[in-house]
Write a structure and sequence with these properties.
Blueprint: H1 3-9, E1 18-21, E2 25-33, E3 38-45, H2 52-63, E4 74-81, E5 87-94, H3 101-106, H4 115-135, E6 140-141, E7 150-152, E8 158-160, E9 167-168, H5 201-217, H6 232-239, H7 249-258, H8 262-265, H9 269-287, H10 298-312
Length: 319
């Protein structure tokens, strides 16, 4: 697409159309076809920032041959010049009407996700990782998985976005590595990366484990509670016998409102919920293990989460 088309679609990249910003640029909402009134998310790279141009190329390489229901789809791109003759690069994505997972977890106290919705998002993200790790033409490591990079569509289906730090692996193996250094987000990046280890799919699994624990506890890994080597994994592991003390209180409140079914009337609801929450926390702990070899593979995560969903949620539960 041309710069002129994107400039018009975003009303000159106006602040009113700004929907997010990240390390390498900003994202704007824009209407590219005025007749259809269809919205798109337009990511504009700040090429003055070191690494932004490489991020644009990395994302193009990672996404050009990938198609999966749980990956945000890139519609097209723009590599041109702006009206001042400066280099301009942009990616155009499908617009996700329900924003990002981080906002749902931390800035929506009046309308949080219920347990089934959180479990569905966990399955969606694990499915996306399993695809890029094991089923894509060339295995890919995302390298920056976190709630703000998980977007939700109108049906609250989770889609992984932002492959600007992604690395393409040359061989399908969990220990395949890249010589390119890693940059991730504090709290989500695998600990081995900080010790000089190279990129692997198990690094994404660690990030996923932290994300799953965040889904369940409502706490970011950067919470003030976590310091001096005490992390999310430790917090959950120590408290695990007493699940109700660490589960997100907003989730508990939402579930208390939903629990008006015959499951509860039979006195089985709390026990079943406790059982399946324990299984979910156990998966999160496995994935966020400090030792890469102890982490679950993504295909096993998908299978286990699917079993939990089918075993806990009868059709009538959420209507």
């Amino acid at each position: 697409m041309s710069y002129r088309e994107l400039h018009k679609a975003t009303e000159g990249f106006s602040h009113e159309n700004l929907i997010g910003s990240g390390t390498f640029g900003s994202v704007y909402k824009g209407i590219l076809n005025s007749q259809e009134q269809r919205s798109f998310a337009i990511k504009v790279f700040d090429l003055q920032k070191n690494g932004a141009s490489k991020s644009f190329v990395a994302e193009c390489r990672a996404l050009r041959n990938m198609r999966h229901r749980n990956l945000v789809r890139v519609v097209t791109c723009c590599s041109s010049q702006d009206y001042q003759g400066r280099e301009f690069k942009s990616l155009i994505y499908e617009f996700m009407s329900n924003g990002d997972l981080d906002t749902w977890l931390h800035n929506r106290s009046d309308n949080t996700l219920n347990l089934l919705q959180r479990l569905n998002v966990a399955i969606d993200v694990a499915s996306a990782l399993n695809y890029v790790h094991n089923e894509a033409e060339t295995p890919i490591v995302h390298c920056d998985l976190k709630p703000s990079n998980v977007l939700l569509d109108e049906n609250l289906i989770g889609c992984v976005a932002d492959f600007g730090l992604a690395r393409l692996l040359q061989e399908k193996a969990n220990n395949t590595s890249s010589s390119i250094g890693i940059r991730g987000s504090i709290g989500y990046a695998a600990p081995e990366y900080g010790m000089g280890s190279q990129v692997s799919t198990l690094g994404d699994v660690y990030s996923y484990g932290v994300l799953l624990l965040e889904l369940l506890t409502g706490k970011r890994p950067t919470d003030d509670l976590f310091n001096d080597g005490f992390n999310h994994h430790d917090y959950v592991k120590i408290a695990l016998p007493q699940l109700w003390k660490i589960v997100d209180p907003l989730l508990l409140r939402r579930e208390a409102e939903n629990y008006q079914s015959e499951i509860v009337q039979e006195g089985e609801g709390e026990d079943k919920m406790n059982q399946h929450l324990l299984a979910l926390f156990t998966i999160g702990l496995s994935c966020s293990s400090q030792v890469p070899g102890e982490r679950m593979e993504t295909k096993d995560v998908v299978n286990e989460l699917t079993k939990i969903k089918s075993g806990f949620f009868p059709d009538f539960y959420y209507g």
